[in-house]
Amino acid sequence: MSSFEEAETEETVTCLHLTFYHPGQGEKMMFRCLNFCRREQVRADDVAKFGRDSSVCRYSLVDTRVSRIQFSLHFYRKLHTSEHGFEIKNLSKKTKLTVNQTELSYLNKIDLPWKCIICFGDYQILAEIQEGENVDYFETHLHLAEAPILQERCLPSLEPVPENGISPSFSLSQGKSPTEIDENEL
User: Where is this region: Disordered (predicted)?
Assistant: First the structure.
């Protein structure tokens, strides 16, 4: 047998892709302590903390308006499955954190959706989870966005769109009340 045949099967690794944006990043360089475009391994039992205090936070943002510890991400395996996920917790007493449209106050936590936008202050972070099998560690891959993420990416609208394609808020704004029409009358 060749060494190739005897080699252990490679496990895929869960990777959390994080794309950062701040309108003042050009002048203020608040992301200068982050390692962009290079994957970094994080042990499964470590909590990935983001904030201003580089002695406590693995991912440090150089900005006095950011809390010492802004938020944390905790890697876990979902109960009764082989799937993995991340839990995000707001650790800032002063700044609320939003994940898509969910607002988190101090110590609030939720499961991180597989694709979402995390916002606090003027910061926008697009988080995308690439699933893997390894249970000992996960990877982070940081990217820098040049344009605002909220304008660049279109998240699905939570408001249903009617079959005629006209938004209810548009038709009501013209002073007409909604009326029911038989589809044979069209």
Answer: 166-186
Q: Distance from CA of residue 5 to its chain's centroid? A: 39
The Cβ of residue 14 has, within 10 Å, a number of other Cβ atoms equal to 23
What is the C-alpha to C-alpha distance for residues 132 and 49, in angstroms, rounded to an integer? Answer: 21
Radius of gyration of the chain (CA): 22
Please tell me which residue, 178 or 62, carries the higher pLDDT value. 62
Q: Which ranges of the chain would DSSP assign to H, the alpha helix?
A: 3-6, 25-28, 149-152, 168-172
CATH number belonging to the domain at 13-149, selected among 1.25.40.10, 3.10.180.10, 2.60.200.20, 3.90.228.20: 2.60.200.20
- Judge contact between 118 and 145, C-beta under 8 A: no
pLDDT digits (tens, 9 = 90+) for 86-114: 999 999 999 999 999 999 999 999 999 99
